[in-house]
């Protein structure tokens, strides 16, 4: 295996890497002091607190036809490229992620808002199978195509169930997309070489579950908690279930009746797995409440369990609980 001499040198003395990163940190501090960025950062703070976009002039300007967004993105890239030209092993001190064909570099984050540069790799997109589903989460998103061209679809969900609709999009520099992420999903399916966008996102103040629907028939195929807090609670419930902590059953039964839909359903599943009696009582309580948003799926699960395990009907009679027909 070949190891570059510069990397080999750092194995014995990492001073060069520390100096390179120090140069990048200084460059980031200098960038934050530039007037073009200070106004944008202030706008992100206000927008992240819940203000309307019209109340954030710097952000409105970014996503305007005059090219302010392209200028900011170009200035950002050129600023840090100058450092990378001298220190090629340094890293831009911003959060970034890569998911196959999509790479994201976060420029700023405050409250519920984030501003990012997004790169779509056309070669890797071409290797991926055609999308079979689209995801929706409560929030808003504005996207500006900085460079590159391609094609995709804007998928829309008009109702909570039923087929999805979509329309073809042709991406080109300067194009601006406003997306209501609760009912619209953007699918980038083909890119000529590479495409870069500037993305402004804001999550809902109290987001509900994120949902994924099949493109073929609108069938719900996946659902997850809408907040980090609820997601963490779901993981804790799953861990208690895998540890077979029977002492957690009362807590699970109680959690099945309060909180978000996804968290409640997870609590109910774990309760049923640990203690079928307690779990089935909680399930019946949910199914019997016509005002509960989980009443219908709980009723369907109750019917399935009664068919598979007739002994549960005897438990209902013993506790004088109504048994569905």
Poorly predicted ranges (pLDDT <50, ≥5 residues)? none
Strand order, sheet with most strands? 1-2-3-10-5-8
Whole-number count of domains: 2
What is the level-2 CATH architecture name of the largest domain?
Sandwich
Q: What is the helix tally?
A: 12
Could you say which structural class the secondary elements and strand pairing correspond to?
alpha+beta
Question: What is the N-to-C order of secondary-structure elements (H for helix, E for strand)?
Answer: HHHHHEEEHEEEEEEEEEHHHHHH
CATH superfamily of the largest domain: Jelly Rolls
What's the total count of β strands?
Answer: 12
User: What does the average pLDDT come to?
Assistant: 89
CATH domain fold name of the largest domain? Jelly Rolls
Beta-sheet strand percentage?
Answer: 25-35%
The shape is: elongated
How much helix is in the residues? 40-55%
> What would you report as the Rg, rounded to the nearest angstrom?
25 Å
Descriptive report:
The chain has 325 residues and is of the alpha+beta class. It folds into 2 domains: 14-224, Jelly Rolls (Sandwich), CATH 2.60.120.10; 228-318. The chain has 12 helices and 12 strands. It has helices spanning 5-12, 15-32, 35-48, 57-62, 68-86, 122-127, 228-242, 249-255, 261-274, 276-287, 295-308, 311-318; strands at residues 96-99, 102-110, 113-121, 133-136, 139-147, 150-156, 165-171, 176-180, 184-191, 194-203, 210-214, 220-224. A 6-stranded antiparallel sheet has the order 1-2-3-10-5-8. Strands 4-11-12 form a 3-stranded antiparallel sheet, with no helix packed on it. Strand 6 (150-156) and strand 7 (165-171) form a beta hairpin. The longest helix is centred in the N-terminal third of the chain and has 19 residues, at 68-86. It starts with a helix and ends in a 7-residue tail after the last helix.
């Amino acid at each position: 295996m070949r190891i570059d001499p510069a990397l080999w040198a750092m194995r014995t003395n990492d001073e060069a890497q520390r100096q390179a990163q120090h140069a990048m940190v200084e460059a980031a501090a200098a960038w934050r002091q530039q007037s073009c960025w200070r106004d944008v950062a202030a706008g992100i703070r206000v927008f992240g607190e819940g203000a309307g976009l019209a109340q954030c002039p710097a952000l409105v300007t970014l996503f305007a036809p005059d090219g302010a967004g392209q200028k900011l993105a170009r200035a950002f890239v050129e600023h840090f490229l100058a450092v990378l030209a001298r220190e090629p092993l340094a890293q831009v001190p911003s959060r970034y992620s890569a998911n196959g064909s999509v790479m994201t570099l976060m420029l700023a984050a405050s409250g519920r808002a984030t501003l990012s540069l997004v790169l779509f790799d056309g070669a890797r997109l071409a290797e991926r199978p055609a999308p079979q589903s689209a995801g929706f989460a409560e929030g808003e998103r504005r996207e500006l195509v900085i460079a590159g061209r391609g094609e995709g679809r804007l998928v829309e969900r008009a109702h909570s169930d039923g087929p999805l609709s979509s329309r073809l999009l042709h991406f080109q520099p300067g194009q601006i997309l406003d997306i209501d992420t609760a009912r619209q999903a953007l699918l980038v399916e083909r890119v000529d070489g590479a495409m870069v966008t500037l993305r402004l996102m804001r999550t809902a103040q109290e987001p509900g579950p994120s949902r994924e629907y099949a493109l073929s028939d609108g069938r719900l195929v996946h659902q997850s908690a809408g907040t980090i807090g609820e997601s963490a609670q779901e993981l804790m419930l799953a861990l208690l279930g895998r540890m077979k902590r029977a002492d957690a059953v009362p807590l699970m039964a109680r959690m099945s009746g309060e909180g978000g839909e996804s968290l409640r359903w997870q609590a109910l599943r774990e309760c049923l797995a640990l203690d079928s009696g307690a779990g089935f009582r909680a399930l019946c309580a949910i199914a019997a409440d016509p005002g509960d948003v989980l009443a219908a799926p709980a009723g369907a699960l109750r019917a399935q369990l009664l068919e598979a395990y007739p002994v549960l009907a005897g438990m209902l009679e013993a506790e004088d609980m109504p048994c569905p027909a």
